[in-house]
Amino acid sequence: MALGSWKSFNFFIVTPVKATDGADNAPPLFEGADITTLTSGSDTLFIGTSLGFVHVVNSAFKIIRSFPTYENDSEHVGSIRHIKQVEGTKLLVTVSEDLSTDPVLKVWALDKTERKTGLPRCQSTVTIQNGRRQFPISAFATTPSLSLVAVGFANGSIVLIRGDLIHDRGSKQRIIFESEEPITNLCFSPPPTTPNAHAHQGGFGPYRHTPAPDGGDTLYVSTIGRILTLITAGKGTGQPRVLESQGCGPGCMKPAIDFSSEEKGLAGEGSDIVVARDDAIYFYGPNGRGACYAYEGPKEMVHIFKNYVALVSPPASQPSTAPKSGGMTRTLKRLVGRGASAAVSEDPFDVTKFTLLDTELKFVAHSERLISGVKQVFSTWGDLFVLTFDGKVHRYHEVSLQEKLGILYARNLYIPAINLAQKAGVGEAKLRTIYRRYADYLYGKGDWDGSMQWYIKAIGKSDGEGVSTVIRKFLDTQRIHNLIEYLEELHMHNIATSDHTTLLLNCYAKLKDIEKLEKFIRVSSGEGLRFDVDTAIAMCRQAGYHEQAVYLAERQGEHEVVVGILVENLGKVDEALGYTKRLEPEIAYSSLMRYARTFLRQVPQQTTDFFIEYYTGRYIARKKEEPGAQTQQQEGRIQSYLNASLLQQLPYMGGGGTAGGTSPNTNASTNATASASPRKISDSAAGDGGAVPLDLPAPYKPPRPRTAFSSFVDHPKEFVEFLENVLETAREGVLGEGDRVDIYTTLFEMYLQRANEAKTTEEKQQWEAKAKGIIEDKETLIDTSNVLLLSHLSNFRDGTVLVREKQGLRFDIFRSCCSAGDTAGAVRALKKYGAEEPQLYVAALSYFTSSPKVLADVGEAELQRVLKVIDEQGLMKPLQVVQTLSTNAVATVGMVKRYLGDTIEKERREIENNRRMIENYKTETEKKKAEIEDLGSKPSVFQSQRCLACSLQLELPTVHFLCKHSFHQRCLNNVDDNPECPTCSASNQTIRTLRKAQDEYADRHEYFNSQLQESRDKFGTISEFFGKGVMAAPPVFN
């Protein structure tokens, strides 16, 4: 690119350096001083003069130190032609020359002084030998470590000095190159930023080598006719390699790096040196020419400042330094330092041009015309300085980045502003601000597409303030494509909100761009979701893109949303149920309960099986069938059989064993309905392929059965099937008592409901039989009041009877039959419970004779049987029977004639028996009284000859008792004052005990009252207690 097409800016502030006393003149140091060379380093300026003195200058341009480079006049070797400060050290290198003698190189340690003179210590002195040829030094270069020093002469020879010049441990020098052309510039290759940084550049043949640690492996040489390199190490030392067949003038070749700045300079362009010739600016590396920038015009000097190339162009009236333009004479004068007199032109329009270029960004940072010619260009203290021949010093201070951007903004040069900011390494936030300004500029010009590209680049992770503005600008149907592009980028950067997602999906829907919608959803899902999925799902459902909504919800794990879309939007109830069966237990339960009624309405049997499987703790999440699963169906049959066999041997989750045989009380239920047997549950678990998964059920706690009851509204058949299967689990002890009560109660109610809805008598009897089975089952946990209530509401009298019978309420059963007018039921209840509840006969007598119709239904034979039982068991007195029958005019005398006759005859016999017993008691009493009287008044004769205890012949001493029993005295256990016959003692003791008990009963009136209350024959009870002496008056002792 030609330099003339580069844009020019003013990024530098130029100020003249004035004296410290406030005068407008330059510092006295530069005015009239015969300055031959200068250099900067370590924040200090070093000036060499023609008198051989070195002046050390600070940032205020004051001389802080001066010293001669010779000790006495005899050692004076001329003016200082070259000077260099080793950056980061206190070492200074000076080269003094006088054409009468050989040049002298000295290394000074500025931090060390000589005791005698107080001057800096000279570390080493080297006399540079040019083969005894007295030619001026035209070029000079050193490496940072001073291990190599190259000196070029005007006769075309180059002397390379190698050694330890810092510690004066000796050095060697030799001429490594000779040419017929004067040497104009020397530069060592810069140090690599990393070890072996230049190894990739290779070389040709002998030039291939490893670079030195501090650089200097390659010496760049320029003459007035060539650019070449010399290898300074290895076998190829001194062998030239021509890089360019055109040379350059003195001062027109410099290393492409600013050692005084922390910035990298221009070495990053793959070049080591920069060369300024009349036609262009060239960069060179070890392998040849690099970048090139056309810039027509003579060049007098080049300098690298930070990332800029400083060019000094002589006045147009002065000849070029190039050989072809006839400037050879002037070049030689500059080489020997004789060209200053022609530097100041008398023509005010014939000026020197000073330019600062940014070759990376391709713009002119500063351009200025100087009346006086440029003598030296140096950089230090962060600024660039130009010393002119008239002794003036100009400071060039670079403006801040913000000021540069302001200049570019004012000219609407946003691309250069962006490049400049990127080169300066500003943060992403600052760059996005520039992008947005540029996008606003393009939007104002009507470049919608271009502005959108830069708005997209302005998007950042934390960018939120400008997004709404951009969206509002493009909310127009004509620019909806730009808006879609911007919204997509927001999602790519993960900064899109739910509103952005909604807007993007609305745009897709407005354009009906299904392809982009699919790509947005599926690509984003594959790379990680970059948008609010909930919003996207809602918008897809609203816009009618249900398949996409299902895909998003499934990817996000929103399983309930997937089921909802399949059921509510797509109507794929069967598929929704299948999807629910693939979910984990907790999630599957939520979806099942939410859409249970819909599932039961569309696929009742599959849903019922699912309910049974889940609530019995046997649920196993299915696996989604792969497309190639059908090819493995044949191979899976054997495995499925084995899996089913293994599962049948395992206990169900939460249960103590497998579901064994069916209870006898539920056999009818199993046969009458399509209840889910263990085989059916296995089929359901197997899925469509009929294979039972080998995976065991995931551990989960089945919910309480009553939570599913409301789902089976309007589905009584399926509800009964569900309850019966869950009841099997309840019998295994898995469910708690409360759950079992709920199941039994609800199942009983459903049986009654089904019985009432039955169309045939046989079917009704079957359902009622199941209901009876629940009541009769000993394990049934059902509240009696619930059974009675449900039985009453369903007009199920058998249920009421069974409950009352189970609770021992037999009298209530009979009474309920009588209240209902069920004579046959009353007769059956009497026959069934009469033996256990005799009072039922008393109630039956009243009921049977309550009306002619009841008596006719019962029959006279049954009435006679009731009367017979009442008579046999003494349940009623004859008088009570007569009173009961005479209450109404239903029963006739003829019906009870036999009963009355039998009763009278029985009473007569009983009276006769009582009379005989009275006579017998009287006779026996008289007899006992006579015996007692005889014993008290007459002697007793004992005729017993043997002892009743041992059966031996009686021998004295002998004991005789009045009861006519005789014993040996020795056979008696003890003989006291009141001996008692051992034979009669037991009966006597019984009599005494009875008598004592009678005496005690006489004082226990509460016992008498209780016996009297419980007795059916109260008169007989009174007679009994009277006979026992309870009623007798206590004996009176005088």
From TrEMBL:
Subcellular locations according to the entry: Endomembrane system; Vacuole membrane
Key words of the record: Coiled coil, Membrane, Metal-binding, Protein transport, Transferase, Transport, Ubl conjugation pathway, Vacuole, Zinc, Zinc-finger
Domain spans labelled RING-type: 947-985
Stretches forming CHCR repeats: 458-609
GO molecular function, one term: protein-macromolecule adaptor activity
Enzyme class name: transferase
Sequence ranges of Low complexity compositional bias: 661-678
Disordered: annotated span: 653-700
Membrane topology: Peripheral membrane protein
Keyword ATP-binding: no
Catalysed reaction equations from the record: S-ubiquitinyl-[E2 ubiquitin-conjugating enzyme]-L-cysteine + [acceptor protein]-L-lysine = [E2 ubiquitin-conjugating enzyme]-L-cysteine + N(6)-ubiquitinyl-[acceptor protein]-L-lysine
InterPro entries, A to Z: ARM-type_fold, CHCR_PEP5_VPS11, Clathrin_H-chain/VPS_repeat, PEP5_VPS11_N, TPR-like_helical_dom_sf, VPS11, VPS11_C, WD40/YVTN_repeat-like_dom_sf
Coiled coil: 904-938
EC number: 2.3.2.27
One cellular component term from this protein's GO annotations in UniProt: CORVET complex
GO biological process per UniProt: endosome organization; intracellular protein transport; organelle fusion; vacuole organization; vesicle docking involved in exocytosis
Keyword Protein transport included in the entry's annotation: yes
Subunit organization: Component of the homotypic vacuole fusion and vacuole protein sorting (HOPS) complex. Component of the class C core vacuole/endosome tethering (CORVET) complex.
Similarity field: Belongs to the VPS11 family.
Protein name as catalogued: E3 ubiquitin-protein ligase PEP5
Organism: Tuber aestivum
Organism ancestry: Eukaryota, Fungi, Dikarya, Ascomycota, Pezizomycotina
